[in-house]
Structure formats: C-alpha cells, structure tokens
Amino acid sequence: MKKIYLDQASTSYPKAPTVAEAVYTYLSQSAVNVNRGSYDCAYSIEEKVFETREQLCRLFHFPKIQNVIFTSNVTMSLNFLLKGLLRPGDHVLVSSMEHNAVMRPLTQLKDLGVSFTRIPCDCEGNLLLSKAADLIRPETKALVCLHASNVCGTLMPVEKLGAFCKKHGLVFLLDAAQTAGVFPLDMEAMQIDALAFTGHKGLRGPQGIGGFLIRDELVPKLTPLISGGTGSISHTEEIPEFMPDRFEAGTPNLPGILGLHAALSYLEGHSMEEMRNHELALTRYFLDGLHSVDPDGEYIRIIGKKDTDGRCAVVSVQTPKIDMAKAAYALDQTYGIMTRVGLHCAPSAHQTLGTYPEGTIRFSFGPENTKEEVDIALEALFAVAGKNR
C-alpha cells in the first residue's frame, strides 16, 4: 500500500532534496564546533552559519544579519520573546486562534503578573481587528499572533496588524510557523518587530532548528532566557551585550543549521509563488471534491473557510457519523493516508471554530503532493465517513 503524507502542517515531507546530504556531509566529514576552534575547518562552518543568517535576512526582508538568532524551533523562539520582554503588570493582545506555543508561555506568565486579552475571530478564524482598539489598556505592551492558523489555515492580516501596532505604540511579534517559506513576509513593510520561525515546515529543513529575527530597538528590552558559554569574551562571566551572542548560549545545532542552509538554498532557486499556488490548487481541489459530493456536510463537515481566499494549504474536517480518531486510524491503516487528528495544540482556536473539545481531522498539502494523491484521499475519506460517491 502506497503511503500518502498529508500532514505537512506538522512537518514537511519530503525535505528539500539537498538537506539530508548537507547534514550527512557535516556529520561525517567536518563535525567541528564554531566560535571555539581556531582552525580552517571551524572557520568554514562559521561561514556557512553566517550565510544562513544572510539567507534568512533575504527571505524576511530584514536588514540586520547579527540580529538573526538560532533556536531549536518556533516554540523556543516565542518563549525567548515573550518571557524575555514581558514584565509584571504588562498586558498583551493575542488572537483567539493562537497555538499553545504562544498561549502556554502567556498562561505561565500570569503567575508573574502578566495578563492577556484575546482579540476575537469569527467562525472561519478571521481576525476581527475592528474590536482590537477597545481592548488596549494603558499597560498593553505588545500584540503577538500567528500568521496562519495551524487548525484551519486562515491567514491573519499581518500588514494591518503592523500598522495597528505602530499607531498604538505596541511591539508586534509574529509567529510564522505555518507560512515561512510559503508566503512572502517583509518585516520592514509589515512593521514586524520580531518574527519567530521554524525550519522544518514550509522551509523544508530538518527538525530541531528555528529562530527569530529581532529589531535593534527591542534587543536591550529582552532579557536572555538562557545564558552560558558563547566562545566570545570568555574572560568575563557576564552575558555578552552584542548580537547574536547575547541570545545564543551553548553549542548551536550545527547539523540543523547546515540542513536549513541547504533548504534555503533550494528555496532561493525555486519560485515560492509557484509552490504556494500548487499547494492552494490542491487545497481548492480537495474542498471542491468534498463540497460536490456532500454539500450539506452531513458526512464530512468542512471547518473554516470553504474556499482558498486568505488561507494556507491546511484544511480541517469533522466526520459527524464516525468517531474522528477511528476515522483517522482507518485512513492510515486501510488507505495509507497520513493526517493529524485532535486539537492540534490549539484549544483556543478550536473554541473559536466551534470544534472544542472534539477537535478535527486535519489535511495539509505540500509542494510535492499531487492531484492524484488528493483523489485517493477524497475516496478514502468518503469511504471511512460512510458516504457513497
């Protein structure tokens, strides 16, 4: 049975073609450290790390190479930003569609006197920005939100949010987990103060590497979450003030960075727009296939948007006549269709969408998925849901 991977929102597969070779070459031929060794091999790896920072600056239209910080993933990046920036008494605005990568740190910070308010979204996940101004308090310091919902794919109005934050003097933090490498992001034009990304989704790099890009004005306001050796100014026990060392303590994930370098090189050689259009065409084909056979959603209920305007290639459904966990299991075991079922680490989003606590079955498409695979997935889903086509 051929396996069909439709869980791209969790992690991309297959990875960009050059990623595995780049990681293997480093580990097998030159697995040295950086900022420690005074020899050519170490300098060569340091150059690759620097080039990766340059690539990320180009990708996100960001001017400061040394302000690109590597972490393990977008979750760690958001923890760095939220826990480093916020102080007792501060207030934050979030969308009601947030992932727990934002909500759990903020909930943890409540014990330290930080509060947050959710900007409401409608039943399709669209942000109701008109309601945001009334939620601002004198102590409101920042607005943090995801760019696209990992549950239903709805995009947030990033440019409008950047203008809103500028107007009201708020720090704008963006979670680009689902969109980096798929949708264009311009930190300058969108007035984003800090952007958190992960390397293993739309960028198609390995797991375990991510990071954030941060404006100069925010750097002194951010307390480092982790401290330790950096290989620089080793004569002092004080944390370096300069970037990126201020936020990069310890040995970095060099296999991950070099894999990300390879993935970004591949991305730069291909059209992001073409790949995005391909993913959205598959999304449209999937949605149309569901609607044409079951327009009332009696057997398969589409959650969120029914078209491809203002969304990424993530679709959630419910199967009213069969338990969703059983449906997802049958899709995998009987038909080889790999999806994700449950609450997707986003209970607030599911409450907004009306799918809490049951959750959904999530289908997400990547640049190498095909129309034929979507046809097989549709046939399988209808069969599992008990609907004859």
UniProtKB/TrEMBL annotation:
InterPro entries (UniProt xref): Aminotrans_V_dom (IPR000192), Aminotrans_V_PyrdxlP_BS (IPR020578), Cys_dSase-rel_unknwn_funct (IPR010969), Cysteine_dSase (IPR016454), PyrdxlP-dep_Trfase (IPR015424), PyrdxlP-dep_Trfase_major (IPR015421), PyrdxlP-dep_Trfase_small (IPR015422)
Keyword terms of this UniProt record: Aminotransferase, Pyridoxal phosphate, Transferase
Annotated TM spans: none
Catalytic EC class: transferase
Cofactor section: pyridoxal 5'-phosphate
GO molecular function per UniProt: cysteine desulfurase activity; transaminase activity
Gene3D superfamilies: Aspartate Aminotransferase, domain 1 (3.90.1150.10), Type I PLP-dependent aspartate aminotransferase-like (Major domain) (3.40.640.10)
The keyword Transferase is annotated on this UniProt entry: yes
Catalyzed reactions: (sulfur carrier)-H + L-cysteine = (sulfur carrier)-SH + L-alanine
This protein's record includes keyword Transferase: yes
Span of domain Aminotransferase class V: 4-375
EC number: 2.8.1.7
Domain of life: Bacteria
Similarity comment: Belongs to the class-V pyridoxal-phosphate-dependent aminotransferase family. Csd subfamily.
Protein name per Swiss-Prot or TrEMBL: cysteine desulfurase
Taxonomic path: Bacteria, Bacillati, Bacillota, Clostridia, Lachnospirales
